[in-house]
Amino acid sequence: MLFSLRPDYASDPLLQNLVEQLREYLDDELAEYEHEHALTPSTPITRELLEPVWRRSRELGFYGIHLPPRLGGQGLTHTQLAALKEEVAASGRVLGSSVLGEMGGPLRAGDIMAAATEHQMEKYFLPVVRAERACCFSLTEADAGSDVRAMRTTAVRVTDGYRLTGHKVFSSAGPVADFAIVVARMADTEKTYSAFLVDLDCAGCQVLPGATPMSGEHIESDIVLDDALVPAANLLGKEGDGFTLGLGRVNVNRLLHCPSVLGMTRRALELTLARSRTRIVRGAPLGDLQSIQHKLADMATSYYAARAMTYAALAELDTGTVPRLEAFMCKLNVAETAFRILDEAVQIHGKEGLTQGNEVEYLFRRVRMFRVLTGTSEIQKNGIAKLLLEGAGQSAA
């Protein structure tokens, strides 16, 4: 894998064709749509804004493209999907996360669809695939982030299903979702957790505006459940499968989030190179200064190393192996590397990099969040150390 700020996939003709088509849509049609609606990262996102993008992305074949052909996708490998996610993030499009279905679409549902019954597929997931309905995932609580076992949301078994009570936070896509995948602890147990499909308009359920993250995006919601009745048919898998489904999704997403962050980092590198070429200091381009050249060299080298590491782990995932140790390592390295690169990008942009409305300033805030989201860097280190001490990565004696 050679270094490039505009990767070429000549060895994979299918992927190369998809990337070219995706770039064209992102840079032309979607860019024009965003311009017409004067969208910025802090614009409140509504269904009215997103639905045309969902439908158009589905028409072009991108919405749910990772799904198997029987569900309308192209059955992409994890590596191919990662390359597309990277392109979306590198485009700088405000609504980019809706193109592949991350904002309430098939990518938001993730591998949980594999546990769905025929009824659940027909009522909930297939409409999501068709861009008719949207979903969100609700696991986090105010005092149950990295330590998800501290969750207080409970499910009580009743004659006609389950009664759920609790308060979920940071439910991404919640403001536009029709239903949520909620993980709750079974009442009167300490370690039994189950997953449920919860209609967000059901009695006892409230969707409230969530906290605005430092990125300034309005994509989060709180989901408050007060004795909300969930039909027995809406239990995902079996009772007790909640962590397997919820954290299994997180384990894969830990690695699949990395290409998106790499895409944002790539965008920042492009913007910083442009700034270094065009910013005139004392009669010469900023990039003529050796101190700036050294920063650019370190930024590009670190980006290349993080990207190569990530795609090596993705290749292993495509063989059927779940690279648990490597996924922890990639998430840690990409998060910390991207943060350092964006910090230097802000430094090189100077005053412009400190100004709200400047893209590099926004990217800095987005990337900073990744050191916490999907498990903090400290949690990744814990996971790495635990697996190393258990003997992961050692050759057989």
TrEMBL record:
| Range of residues in the leader sequence | none
Domain named Acyl-CoA dehydrogenase/oxidase C-terminal: residues: 240-388
The chain positions of domain Acyl-CoA oxidase/dehydrogenase middle read 136-217
Q: What is this protein identified as?
A: Acyl-CoA dehydrogenase family protein
**Similarity comment text for this entry:** Belongs to the acyl-CoA dehydrogenase family.
> What's in the keyword line of the UniProt record?
FAD, Flavoprotein, Oxidoreductase
* Domain Acyl-CoA dehydrogenase/oxidase N-terminal: from-to ranges: 16-131
List, alphabetically, the SUPFAM superfamilies matched: Acyl-CoA dehydrogenase C-terminal domain-like, Acyl-CoA dehydrogenase NM domain-like
Q: Which PANTHER family match?
A: MEDIUM-CHAIN SPECIFIC ACYL-COA DEHYDROGENASE, MITOCHONDRIAL (PTHR48083:SF2), MEDIUM-CHAIN SPECIFIC ACYL-COA DEHYDROGENASE, MITOCHONDRIAL-RELATED (PTHR48083)
Q: Which cofactor does it need?
A: FAD
In this record, what's one Pfam family? Acyl-CoA_dh_1
> From what superkingdom does this record's organism come?
Bacteria
Answer whether the UniProt record assigns the keyword Flavoprotein to this protein: yes
